[in-house]
Amino acid sequence: MALPQRKTDIGPPHYKQFLPPVIQKNYGKWKYHEVLTPGTMVHVAESGDKLWTVRVASPRLLSTETIREQCDIAEKYCDGHLRYTTRNNVEFLVSDEKKLESLKKELKDRGFKMGGIGPHITNVVHTQGWVHCHGACTDASGLVKAMMDELYDYFETKKLPNKVRLAVACCVNMCGAVHCSDIAVVAVHTKVPTIVHEKFKNMCELPTVIGSCPTRAISPDPAQKSVKINAEKCMYCGNCFTVCPPINIKDPERDGVAIVVGGKINSLRTNPKFSKLVIPYISNEPPRWPKVVAAIKHIVEVYAKNAKKHERIGEWIERIGWERFFSLTGIDFTFQSIDDFTFMRDTMRTSATFKW
Amino acid sequence: MKKYNTPLIDDLEKGPWPSFVTEMKKAAKNNEMANDALGHLEKCYSTKVGYWKHGGIVGVLGYGGGVIGRYSELGGEFPGVAHFHTVRLNQPSGFFYTSKALKEICDIWDKYGSGLTNMHGSTGDIVLLGTKTDALEAIFAEYSSRGWDLGGSGSALRTPSCCIGPARCEWANYDTLDLTYALTQEFQDELHRPTFSYKFKIKASGCACDCVASIARADMSIIGTWKGDIKIDQAEVKNYAKTMDINAEIVNMCPTQCMSYDGKELKINNAECNRCMHCITRMTKALKPSGERGATICIGSKAPIVVGSLLSWVIVPFIKVEPPYTELKDLIRKIWEWWDDNAKPRERIGEVIEMKGMRSFLEAIGVQPQPQQIKEPRKDPFMFYTDEDIAAYKAKEAEEKKTGKYKF
Predict the structure, then answer these.
(1) What is this structure's pTM?
(2) Are B43 and B28 in contact (CB under 8 A)?
(3) Does the distance separating the beta carbons of B184 and A237 come in below 8 Å?
């Protein structure tokens, strides 16, 4: 069969054709919303019109079969309207209240999981991992699945002081922007890369490789028509590997994950914050990474017990102090938590006031 | 089709959270590529190492991006993933779909690809995971003829993305969906044909809640804000008081301490409010922003590579965001021009600003220094003075001598 005529530079389809009529009518005229359950909310327009949203978890990696199933459900209850969230959940948009309960029943019967709205744990922002990335030093989807199975009650029912945003990055490139999450897992290499020198000159560009190193650990090795790496300066970020395949940094026994906490992206109450390193290394233990999962659950539980209502993890820690965070959680404080990259002068304490 | 034994990843089908392994198995039922992707993943789980190679250069005619080449080192063992390229489709603003449109996307993908997707990728695109080089032109013809274009990749404008905005949110200060659509259309060339030093991401959030994480994940963060007072509905405040300790949860958590509540009436000293959104999000029926609406433009955020993560810096404290968005489009062009003149390969805009100095950047884009841009002034004395700076300070002093009044 002949292919249809291709078009270029048309950009995305206009969003308006996909909006439910109730949204087209009340666009920009929403008055308020109420969270009815962790999986349901209603938006009320100035006109009095209402729109119910049912939020459903997704593994982000979706088969076309599941997308079609979501479409069939949307056709039955939502006149075919559905959307996805920035954290990869699916939202069914209902303008007829009579259909709400039957939609929820059908979702439940089909095994879809509703929740995540409000002071809960919702879907985890994550990267491709072993499923599809060349740079991955762990699998992201598997870690997310293992974490969320264990934290599932916080998605569906259990309340927290505020939302806890989780993220997983399968290397320090952090495509998932874990650097501003309440709790995030970032996979780390821990060994100086090896170089296949004979391949270097055909596959890599010298200035790019030297420029890729944040600690200036790479210098030319003219004898081998390659580069050498200063082991005392290398922090194993893997950026050289990204620009030059013959530099090998993967090491199944040494690659692992670190845990960072206390970041946020909104400006509510306090400014957006980066996440900070609290656990420097846990071995890669597929398929369920039990120690990583236990560490995250433990931090969530200590936060739930000690934070004030509305405090995010980072706000709670800033109120009590990092020294108290380490004593409350019992996490060992290590050299890796002291910045020796470029931010030491901003992160060391400069007063004698602290807690024992 | 070869049946793989996958005990390790099978374990990830257990438990309450939806399983990506189940999704891969659904796709694998009648798709060789998805089936081999399953076997390939099991191998990664057993050896604790990945086998994907660095991306090669693949794409469609006339475009320099939108397809990310992916090959496996184990193409012999798993021929279905020997080529396993990603196709990025530019998502509609706000991630809204009709079932008809989504099913059409699925039909095409089943015909040419693995049947595996990400709804959506980190930047916002519909990510179609896994196809072969010789299918790319057909995929592009099928999608583009039905109104779907590719997204960005490489050193180009990446697919702009936005929060749900006025489509379903009472807090949106501008039309994030329309702006995102308009900018994506305006800059199609920059999106499809990589000519930048590195990637450039634009994200549009309607308020400081920042549901697309623009402050952390976009070279240009466009965050909605307002200039007027917060209007208070005291009757609704009374309703909230029935279920909420307004002093503990609202007044005492206000970062500027500009609120008070005596058990009867809530008061806000609006001049001191920094518009953080805490009170509004917690009492959405009672509190509403009013007056002039627009956005704060922040520049520079990125993930850690190469020299550490950045959050975006406030550059333009307030800008009107109204169609046809001429002022904003002009600003973007000026930013790119300066970046282009000053960046080395693979340098993001934030890194170039750090290298060349904020002054150079602000002067190039025609923005005056304002205290809203900073957390605090510099604390070191190592600063530049141009002859013009000193001449201006001297002129000011001459003026003071005439008037007899100091002007600091």
Answers:
(1) 0.97
(2) no
(3) no
